[in-house]
Amino acid sequence: MLNKVQNFINKHQLLDNNRRYLVALSGGADSVCLLLILHKLGYAVEAAHCNFKLRGEESNRDEQFCIDLCKRQNIKIHLIHFDTREYAALKKISIEMAARDLRYRYFEQLCRDIDAAGICVGHHQDDSVETILLNLVRGTGIKGLTGIKPINGLIIRPLLICSKEDINAYLKTEGATYITDSSNLVPDVMRNKIRLQVLPLLREINPSVEHAVMQTASHLIETERVVEGAVETALSSVAFSHNRLTVCGCFEIPLKVFLDFSSSAYLLFYVLSPLGFNSAQIKEINAGLATSVGRIWESAEYEITLDALSLVISRKDYKKALHKKFPEEGLYVVDSEHSIRITYINNVEAITSEELRRDPYTIYIDAAQAKFPLILRNVVNGDKFVPFGMTGVKLVSDFLTDLKKNRFEKRNQLLLTDATNLSLWLVGLRTDNRVRYTKKSTQVLKISYIETHNI
Q: Residue 310's pLDDT is what?
């Protein structure tokens, strides 16, 4: 078992011998097995236990068990209590979702606090099988049928190579005790129904059903790689990515990209499903690609419009008017996801040509030409500027039209001005030639529009 897990860790490069890791410890068989194995393999681990206060004395029993286990193994443990029901009511989500949200928020913060490289959780092969069946029942694409991934961000799953039977056998061999969460034995949520009712029936048809499902998932992983390679090639032709959409707030994809792809329906699913559009909407959009000009579809956060030649995706919150003032140099929050950093540079000669070309969301302007406070706002009718490299004044709206920007992009385009309403920067596109810095400039302002999580 130890060799099996170590080989899996090595194969997927899950852990580093020189880093510390958190182990999510519930006290159940899976998490106890994970903690004992990683500890025995010599990894630096600390345990984290959450008391969700959902099962009365059982919750307190679980906590005490984890404390005692870590004391015997000489492993540091971190404890936290949550009022899960209150959080679920506040957020208007299920108890299960509330517990999951609280747990992972806490783990991520704890990782930062103790400089841990990741959070190891006890998901195993049977969990992956349950996830595949759950996704199949709900309706999913290829990705949902490939099972749980060994690593996803900070979440690491070293036991995915092991079955539940493997885990129980190891604990028995080690003489290790664990506790059983009674809520896992009641088929009151869909995953429990699959574990307790569906899988036993499937085993009557095929006693090795778990192996068969995982074998199918393995084939689908290879299929997914081929399909996603083709998808990414198609989307790279227009430089689309979900990350770029998040930053820009709006993106236009020519209809030709979808119509020329071997399956426009799959390409639409790949683009739109992560944005909250459901299967029925995606089916409608696919059917109307060439005929539903002007029609609009909405998800919780995004809006789609079909133009004559393109599919336009825009974030709803980017429709809100923006007007932010920056009184001096410093770092300022623009919205929930973006910030702006303003810095003086006194050594003008130190600015390299490489720096100037590196990032369209960073500019360098002559500090003497800009009067504070600087103002970041949406473009409005009548805005004018002198595009960098030119001498004549141009309407911003005409400039955006020349760039073939659609109406959503025009509406959400940001403009940075100074206190006198002098245009400084059409954000992400072009600085104003009147504020360019030259060899005669004695001081430069470096201004960056950045994603807040990159700070």
A: 86
The per-residue pLDDT for range 17-43, each reduced to its tens digit, is 999 999 999 999 999 999 999 999 999
Report all structural domains of the chain as residue ranges with CATH numbers, in order of start. Answer: 2-215 (3.40.50.620), 238-317 (no CATH), 321-454 (3.50.40.10)
| Under 8 Å between Cβ of 115 and 95 | no
Euclidean distance between CA atoms 123 and 449, whole angstroms: 39
Burial of 207 (0-12, 13-18, 19+ CB in 10 A): exposed
DSSP three-state, residue 65: helix
Residue with tokens 């996603």: 228
If one compares 318 and 160, the residue with the highest pLDDT of the two is 160
Q: Extract the annotated binding site for ATP.
A: 26-31
Q: How far apart are CA 166 and CA 103, in angstroms?
A: 26
Is the Cα torsion angle 18, 21, 27, 31 positive or negative in sign? negative
Provide the H-helix boundaries in 237-259: 242-248, 255-259
Residues 6+ apart with CB under 8 A from 315: 245, 246, 249, 250, 301, 302, 303
Q: 236: how many CB neighbours lie within 10 A of its CB?
A: 10
SS3 for 102-144 is HHHHHHHHHHHHHCCCCEECCCCHHHHHHHHHHHHHHCCCCHH
Which residues are bridge partners to 315 per DSSP? 302
Element (DSSP H or E) covering residue 64: helix 57-73
- The answer to whether the pTM exceeds 0.70 is no
Percent helix, percent strand, percent coil in the chain, to nearest 5: 45, 20, 35
Give pLDDT tens digits for 82-115. Answer: 999 998 998 888 888 999 999 999 999 999 999 9
Annotated binding-site residues read 26-31
For residue 132, the one-letter residue type is: I
Among 306, 326, 324, 301, smallest CA distance to 249 is for: 301
Distance CA 327, CA 201 (A): 68
What span, in angstroms and rounded, lies between the C-alpha atoms of 200 and 318?
49
Across the beta sheet with 296-298, what order do the strands follow? 250-254, 310-315, 302-306, 296-298
